[in-house]
Structure formats: C-alpha cells, structure tokens
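Notes from the 1:1 (GR / supervisor)

We went over the backlog. Supervisor wanted to see one worked example end to end before approving the batch request, so GR pasted a single chain during the call. The sequence is below; no edits were made to it. Supervisor asked that the structure be written out right there so they could see what the output format looks like.
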Amino acid sequence: MTHILHIKASIRGDESISNQLGDRIVAGLSAKGEARVTTRDLAAEDVPFVSAERFAANLAPVEQRTAEQAELAAISDQLIEELEAADTIVISSPVYNFTIPASLKAWADLVARAGRTFKYTETGPVGLLEGKKAYLAVASGGTKMGSEIDFMSPWLTFFLGFLGITDIEIVAADGVMGRDGEDIIAAAREKAGHIAG
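Structure output shown during the call:
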C-alpha cells in the first residue's frame, strides 16, 4: 500500500486552485492502487510557529522531556511522523507575496529536525528522507514559476532536498490573473491529470 501525504496551505479551501490541482493529483495517484491518504490543511489547523521553548522541546530527547516539553513537541513529532510514513508528498500551495504562505513555513520549521529528518556530517548536512516523490501543486496570480520574482519554488525545492527529497515535480497554474488565466488553469489541470493517470 502506498501512503500519500497531502499538505494544503491555501486559505481559500475548496475554491483554491492549488488545492484543486493537488486534489486531482492525489485522486489519480490513489486510483492507481491501494493507497492511504493523510491530509494536513495548514490554513485550517493553526499550525504553531516555533518559539524558543518549542525549539528546545523539539530537540530534547524524548525520555528527558518534561511534561510541558512533551506537550510543546507533540505537533512537531506528529508532523514528522506523517512525513516519514509517506511514500509520496503532494504540497498544494499558493504564492503569497512571491513566496510560500506563513503556515507552510511554520510546517517546514516544525519538520526540519537535526537527527530525525536531516543530520550534520563532516561534509555538511544530509537529508534522511530519501526515496520519496514530491509534487508541488502551485497557483499564483502574477508570479511565474522560475521567474526572477519567484522565491517560492527555489526555496521549497531546496528545503525538500535538504530533507533528502529530491524527486520533485511542479504543476503550476501561475499568472492566472492575466488575460490567459483560464487557459493557464486548464493546462495545469490537464498536467495534473496526466501525472495522476
């Protein structure tokens, strides 16, 4: 059985183009065979930002955590477990002000943990989540992926690679507020359908 983790970051729910693209990818991948899907809607779940206390709790060995630290670290532990368990990760995200939403950055800060999702070596950090496939389902009003104002796709692909996830494919409905917006969305939906099929 394959395990798909679907991360959603748009505040627009079912109306979100990025969510629709991600849902299409997930539905198609699930139809290929028996699949378990875990969906994490970051915009709806108020994922916390990292504080000094939460950071210390996340790094403390489990057996040495205080009750307060265990409570603070619980969300990070859960998000990491979801990521570790997944064979395929689908991240549905809009571009907000040229980069990722704050909720997706909060998720990234909670899953990047030395000794768990990456490790330090004499030659630099090494990701520990190798062998996974990631799809980025992206939507933007005016930012074209790969353009000089796209700070989202380079950051997100680098971050996933830092964790060891280097097999990444992007499906983008980018620049949908232009006059060709409907055509751009249709093309992205078609690409998502081909990936899924």
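Supervisor's comment: The beta strands are 2-8, 35-41, 88-94, 118-121, 124-127, 133-140, 167-174.
Batch request approved.
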